[in-house]
Recover the amino acids of this structure.
């Protein structure tokens, strides 16, 4: 499909800087008349890279260090050489750098630096009692903690912490040292000291647009206008507009583009009202949950009946659905990207898999717990197996089956908040953004409606049970 036939899909990492850069790309392209679609906040480097490979997005802001990590190259390449290797290895084009280097750094409170005379990372070797709070991504990367600890000979057991919360943990003296990005906006707020990387371990993390090969030349030229426009200090100040001043990602991006005189059109940035955003996210959340629940009912109830009829299937089928429950939600969502891409489709499939167990298990348990006397009576009446199921067994099992569906519905509503990590939207969006900004009020914008939705679902199923199930059956279930 030619690129002109559909909008350019722009992705980004889930962090503040990634979203701002994604907005910059989108606004600049829109200003020049290119239609774009935003899929910002998709997660970490691996998620975005897999989405680009799958063709779910057309471009996103990437860093040279991340691309080298994808290649498992421990030694840094010059940017020009990396551009060539990226094209040869993956078929993607890494455009010229935006100008800033957002590499890793170790920071401590000023009082800690003075107390232990800390100036360089190598000074940490002689201070074994420090508490390290390092981001989860940094703990696993070869250009992160494992390689750094080996090179410097540091013996410590770091605590894994979300990067959005690390500055608060450092300020509250919960930890003594954190990893930071050199362009973090929050660095302007706290009294911190950078430790010199005296053995030059950290590679350059030069930012630039990573694009698919089918992007037309004009879009590349437009994005090329950003080349060299962002210094380290400028990017840090733009990040601070969001992290410290409370601006939106779109407002921060437009602020820079106007300041750099890159926008040709005079337009008013349309910021949706809070209630409009809430309604849109709630509708998306309900759609994700309802679609997954419906699919789970269609599959799990017949599955439960099948297990009831053929007992030898009970162990493998119920074990399989139980194993699905043990997989962490975010891991399952990430696993879906190479198979189904990003957005609504993989989110619904993942939520559907989580909803299978409670419905299938309750269906089987309900059918197995029917009074044997009633089964004998139905046989004596000459009912076939299908008639027994339709007129006797299934109606008697309805209270338990509905209870399983209700459990699955509430679980699905809660788990659906994580769908925001793969661009599916919903009430998880403000939760994810709030965690990155360490903004409890923003987290509550998603958490409270999600909780209310779960409560309303509970009451809705109670009402449904009263309408569909005879009172004597409901009482029987409650007595058990």
């Amino acid at each position: 499909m030619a690129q002109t036939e559909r909008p350019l899909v722009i992705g980004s990492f889930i962090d503040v800087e990634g979203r701002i850069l994604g907005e910059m790309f989108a606004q600049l392209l829109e200003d020049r008349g290119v239609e774009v679609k935003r899929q910002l906040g998709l997660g970490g480097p691996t998620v975005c890279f897999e989405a680009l490979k799958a063709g779910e997005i057309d471009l996103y802001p990437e860093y040279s260090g991340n691309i080298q990590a994808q290649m498992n190259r421990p030694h840094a390449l010059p940017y020009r050489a990396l551009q060539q290797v990226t094209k040869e290895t993956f078929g993607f084009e890494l455009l010229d750098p935006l100008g800033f280097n957002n590499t890793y750094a170790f920071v401590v409170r000023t009082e800690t630096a003075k107390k232990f005379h800390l100036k360089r990372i190598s000074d940490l070797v002689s201070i074994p009692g420090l508490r390290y709070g390092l981001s989860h991504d940094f703990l696993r990367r070869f250009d992160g903690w494992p390689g750094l600890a080996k090179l410097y000979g540091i013996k410590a057991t770091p605590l894994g912490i979300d990067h959005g919360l690390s500055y608060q943990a450092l300020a509250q003296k919960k930890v003594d040292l954190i990893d930071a990005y050199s362009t973090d906006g929050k660095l302007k707020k706290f009294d911190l000291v950078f430790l010199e990387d005296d053995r030059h371990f950290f590679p350059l993390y030069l930012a630039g647009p990573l694009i698919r090969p089918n992007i037309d030349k004009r879009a590349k030229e437009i994005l090329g206008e950003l080349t060299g426009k962002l210094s380290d200090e400028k990017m840090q100040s733009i990040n601070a507009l969001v992290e410290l001043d409370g601006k939106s990602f779109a407002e921060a991006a437009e602020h820079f583009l106007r300041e750099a005189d890159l926008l040709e059109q005079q337009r008013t940035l349309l910021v949706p009202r809070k209630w409009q955003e809430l309604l849109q996210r709630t509708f998306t959340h309900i759609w994700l949950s309802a679609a997954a629940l419906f699919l789970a009912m269609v599959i799990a109830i017949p599955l439960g009946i099948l297990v009831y009829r053929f007992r030898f299937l009970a162990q493998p089928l119920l074990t399989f659905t139980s194993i699905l429950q043990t997989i962490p939600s975010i891991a399952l969502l990430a696993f879906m990207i190479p198979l189904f891409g990003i957005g609504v489709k993989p989110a619904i499939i993942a939520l559907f898999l989580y909803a299978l167990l409670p419905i299938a298990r309750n269906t089987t348990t309900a059918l197995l717990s029917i009074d044997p006397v009633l089964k004998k009576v139905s046989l004596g009446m000459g009912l076939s197996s299908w008639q027994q199921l339709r007129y006797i067994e299934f109606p008697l099992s309805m209270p338990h089956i509905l209870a399983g569906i209700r459990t699955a519905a509430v679980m699905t509503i809660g788990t659906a908040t994580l769908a925001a990590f793969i661009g599916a939207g919903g009430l998880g969006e403000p939760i994810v953004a709030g965690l990155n900004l360490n903004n409890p009020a923003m987290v509550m914008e998603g958490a409270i409606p999600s909780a209310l939705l779960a409560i309303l679902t509970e009451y809705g199923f109670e009402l449904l049970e009263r309408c569909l199930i005879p009172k004597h059956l409901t009482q029987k279930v409650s007595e058990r």
In short: The CA atoms of residues 30 and 36 lie 7 Å apart. The radius of gyration is 27 Å. The chain has a mean pLDDT of 86. The beta strands are 8-11, 36-39, 59-63, 93-94, 104-109, 132-135, 159-161, 177-181, 192-195, 207-211.
